[in-house]
Structure formats: structure tokens, C-alpha cells
Write a structure and sequence with these properties.
mainly alpha; 5 helices; flat
Amino acid sequence: MSTEETSRFVRVRVELVLEVEDEAAVTGAALGRVADDPEIPEGERAHAERAVTEDTAEALAQLIDPFDLVSEVPGVELQQASWSSERIDYDPDSPDWDLDEDDGAQDDEAEAVG
């Protein structure tokens, strides 16, 4: 494939599992972010504060920003991002948590196309 035929866009998929060891610290940091964020309209600020106070997963979603992950990578500009967080049951020894599982399916698809 020549350079002209190659897309300039790259999708990066990241899945993280975090262990929250101090919910109060996470909630406090999220409340600080909400208070300091000029892009949150005043009418929505109380709703955002209530959401991060009631749910640590919401607090993490408020604190983790995909732009922060790539803002200092030279030569790239974030075009679109979405993310969510949820509480999960996690067993690192379970085969259900094999992080390479998706990669194998994509490799198989690439081989079928190539």
C-alpha cells in the first residue's frame, strides 16, 4: 500500500482496570476538577458534583481524560474520544480477563483480508 492509500487516522483502544484504594481521595479530586472546569455550565455543576459523590466510577470518568494521554505526543491531534467507567467484578486469574483475547481476533481478521 502506498503512502497516498494509507489513512492518516489510527484508532487506539485502551482498556484499564483500576483498583480504587481510597474512594475519598478519588471523590475529592473529582469534586475539585468539577469546581475548576470552566466548560461545565453552572446549571450542570450541581448534577456533576452529585454524580461524582455518589459513584466512584463517575468520579474516575471525570478525572481521566483521553486528551491528557496524547496531548504531548508529537505529530498527532486527537480527533475524537469516548470513554466510560463502571464498577466490575475482577479476578486477575480468570481466563475471562485475558487482555490479548481481542488482539487474536483482529490478527485473524487481518490475515483473512491480507
